[in-house]
Amino acid sequence: MDDRVWKALADSTRRAVLDALADGPLTTGDLVERFPELCRTAVMKHLDVLVEANLVVPRREGRQRWNDLNPAPIQAVCDRWVSRHVSRLASAMGRLKGLVEEQQRPEAAAASAKSRKG
Questions:
Q1: What topology is assigned to 2-70 in CATH?
Q2: Of 20, 21, 62, 70, which has the fewest Cβ atoms less than 10 A away?
């Protein structure tokens, strides 16, 4: 499932569709209006990729198709993959912050200056 989510998120238009749905469900017609550079068929193809990745959950009301954002797959990808890399980066940044703060302490600065003279 992660591969489908990455594929869906790889396209800037699909990310824009998800951004539009973040404010609440929209009909397919609403999305076509929001993306005038795309024809209805192109919007539907993008929605199909998003539905396949479970990022959009469609529901029918009469002749209208409402599209709801499902952020759970994005969270799952973040939990499984992104957070691993972010935690390493955060740990390194924490160590760097500690070193910088240590150098900024007055006694550390004085000791550093003394060792340079001597």
A1: Arc Repressor Mutant, subunit A (1.10.10)
A2: 62
Cβ proximity of 57 and 18 under 8 Å? no
Q: How far is CA 57 from CA 27, 50, 60, in A?
A: 11, 8, 10
Over the stretch 27-65, which tens digit does the pLDDT of each residue have? Answer: 999 999 999 999 999 999 999 999 999 999 999 999 999
DSSP-derived pairing of the beta strands 56-61 and 64-69 = antiparallel
Q: Is 4 exposed, middle or buried (0-12, 13-18, 19+ CB in 10 A)?
A: middle
Q: Which two tokens stand for residue 51?
A: 């539905």
Domain range annotation of the chain: 2-70, 73-117
**Distances, alpha carbon 6 to alpha carbons 3, 29, 36, 83, in Å:** 5, 26, 25, 15
